[in-house]
Amino acid sequence: MGKLLLLDIDGTLLNSKKELPASAKEALLAARANGHELAIATGRGPFMAKKVLDELKIDTYITFNGQYIVHKGEPIYREALNPETLSAIVEFAEKRDHPLVFLTHEKMASSIDYHPDIDEGIKTLKYSHPAMIEDFHLKNDIYQALLFCEKEEEPQYEEAFTDMDFIRWHRVSCDVVPKGGTKARGIERLIQKTGNSIEDTIAFGDGFNDVQMMATAGYSVAMGNGVEETKKQASYVTDHVDNDGLAKAFRHIGLI
Q1: Active site residue: 8, 165, 175, 210, which one?
Q2: For the chain: N or C, fewer Cβ within 10 A?
């Protein structure tokens, strides 16, 4: 029976140069040829995953940490953030000089013309600073917001907005998603559609937003470059992404 392989992008598929290692691509295509199905599970939005999706010809993906799910090219689940909650977060953040970036399934926009933290964070994803668009979060379905603040400034948001989760992905930024809006919940929604059982899923990841996915999947692999929490939760810890970690894991667990 083929497995459903759920792959994180940054730090798992893409190495520290944001490139897909040749060894990983070869392993992924070989696993597919062996009857396994490839799917993406990422904090990124669909438009930010497009290059990887196209290169690997993947049409099933969980994006925005479970807020927007597509199966074989068709959206099967979409949950936009509550605009009133977003407006309250904007007001709260503006008082503290913390900018925000809002993401739809097609584009992103900033709450401010320019901020060095946005520039630093977004550049690590190989994107340039998004343009400011007035009231973007009120005129569009926003599936994820990025809040730009440092770690010690984050708890005040958690206390003020108890119906939201703030998941750190960068020194100066965290994803803002509805409480419990995780890749793990995304997997459950996806397998209802694919007909796979949870035992047939294997999750691959490295970040804080992968911990619950690791706990939910039938089997899980943490990258050697992953955070400690992810490694603790994983069934197996492989080598660093820059050291053919993904291909080594595929061989270790017998996918290829």
Answers
A1: 8
A2: N
CA 49 to chain centre: 9
Domain termination residue (choose one: 178, 200, 219) = 178
The whole domain housing 34 covers: 4-78+181-252
Contact 250, 27 (CB under 8 A): yes
Run of H or E including 39: strand 37-41
Total domains in the chain come to 2
Token pair in block for residue 49: 């995953």
Known active-site residue 117:
no
Cα four-point dihedral sign 203, 5, 200, 219? negative
Among residues 178, 208, 239, the one where a domain terminates is: 178
Whether the Cβ atoms of residue 186 and residue 208 lie closer than 8 Å to each other: no
CATH code for the domain in which residue 227 is found: 3.40.50.1000
Q: What is the pLDDT of the chain when averaged over all its residues? A: 96
Residues 74 and 87 in one domain: no
Q: What values do phi and psi take at 217, rounded to 5?
A: -65, 155
* 119-135 pLDDT per residue, tens: 999 999 989 999 999 99
Cα separation, 54 vs 135, in Å, equals: 32
Q: In this predicted model, what pLDDT tens digit does every residue of 91-103 receive, in sequence order?
A: 999 999 999 999 9
